[in-house]
Design a protein that fits this description.
This protein is mainly alpha-helical. It contains 17 helices and two strands. It has a two-stranded antiparallel sheet with strand order 1-2. Helix 2 packs antiparallel against helix 10 and helix 4 packs antiparallel against helix 5.
Length: about 375
């Protein structure tokens, strides 16, 4: 009998047991995101930082997209599913958008409320909301990965899709989100368990580092941002711009698979525990970095030692924000109580058994003298 596919979480009785493989990957990706945002404002001053940005790009946002897909459900969008989307994604996105606006105002900026275009990193939550809504529809397609990829490539020719409601990133990253869901269902099991795949994965990660080190200045920012339509100032012109996006998406998918392959599947001290707080890290770290950036503290790093300390500080910040204490402290914001906003949850419907169905049919027959001539209606 075939072994069950690897799942994002395993269950043992009523308690839920976390899979350390996914948690290890989540913390590494979250830490890389924090480090990049810590050095983002001074990245143009140092070639090494720009190389780091390009070399690790696939291990940050694309990895987070794949992981989000692995933990998503493609089941019907019932009331419970929709309530969870509102509580865990929509409301936290709006709360942190408000906090970001208030913090920006306190630092001397304008008081702007962001609804349709969430600030900085919060685009991911808006996209995640729509990805989870779209996934049950996507899986009904005959060739989901092909269709979502074609849409992602063609979207670059449509000017109307951009930052509003994170429309461009939502559809461009949708193939990676679907790939993550398939991985959560057990796809590519041989890749993750075969001995031959490990050296290939290591080579892929080294190749990413080589590209970052040798050609980082040739990689344009809009190739990786996925936010805007194509422009004519690329090597292949407008006619071939889709090929560049295809190469970027394919490279991202391959490198995320490489990262997952080299990531230990066993529980690692500290890292596995911190990986459970990846979502909290993603939400909280901009609120910490923004005042440091706006007050010019990050810009003061002007030696290699200070830049290295800044990057190490990003890792430490990620670890602190992922700690159980901070997660508990931030839980009212990351998992807010929304009982007053939502209608009472409907009671689960009792399953229709054979006896119950027989009683319904008997009752219907008794109430209709000509029921024998009627076609039975169920429900």
């Amino acid at each position: 009998m075939e072994n069950p596919p690897p799942r994002p979480t395993d269950t043992a009785g009523p308690a839920r047991v976390r899979n350390p493989w996914w948690d290890n990957t989540r913390f590494v990706s979250a830490a890389l995101i924090v480090v990049l945002h810590s050095i983002g404002s001074i990245m143009s001053k140092y070639d090494a930082l720009h190389s780091f940005h390009v070399a690790t790009w696939a291990f940050r946002v694309p990895a987070f997209v794949v992981l989000a897909g692995a933990f998503s459900s493609a089941g019907p969008l019932g009331p419970r599913h929709l309530r969870n989307l509102i509580r865990s994604i929509a409301v936290p996105a709006l709360l942190f958008s408000l906090l970001f606006s208030l913090e920006t105002y306190a630092l001397g900026g304008p008081l702007d409320l962001h609804i349709a275009q969430l600030p900085w990193t919060l685009w991911f939550l808006m996209s995640l909301f729509f990805w989870r809504l779209l996934l049950p529809l996507v899986v009904q397609l005959r060739h989901p990965l092909l269709v979502t990829t074609v849409v992602a490539l063609g979207l670059g020719y449509v000017e109307e899709f951009g930052l509003m409601f994170s429309a461009s990133r939502t559809l461009v990253y949708l193939p990676l989100f679907y790939l993550g869901w398939r991985l959560g269902q057990g796809m590519l099991r041989e890749w993750f368990e075969s001995r031959w795949s490990l050296p290939v994965a290591v080579a892929g990660i080294l190749a990413s580092g080589a590209v970052g080190g040798l050609w980082s200045r040739d990689v344009k920012g809009d190739w990786l941002s996925m936010r805007h339509a194509y422009t004519a100032d690329n090597p292949l012109g407008m006619e071939g711009a889709w090929l560049i996006r295809l190469l970027v998406l394919a490279s991202a998918a391959a490198l995320v698979l490489c990262l997952l392959r080299v990531m230990p599947k066993r529980r690692l001290p500290l890292i596995s525990a911190l990986g459970a707080g990846g979502f909290t890290v993603y939400l909280l770290h901009p609120l910490v970095i923004l005042p440091l950036r706006e007050r010019g503290l990050i810009a003061r790093a002007d030696t290699h030692l200070e830049v290295a300390a800044l990057m190490a500080g990003g890792v430490v910040l990620a670890a602190v924000l992922a700690s159980p204490f901070v997660r508990r402290l931030a839980r009212p914001l990351t998992r807010p109580p929304v009982g007053l906003l939502l209608a009472p949850a409907p009671a689960p419907a009792a399953p229709i058994t054979a006896d119950l169905l027989s009683k319904r049919l008997e009752k219907r027959s008794a109430s209709h003298p000509d029921a024998g001539d009627r076609e039975p209606t169920y429900g």
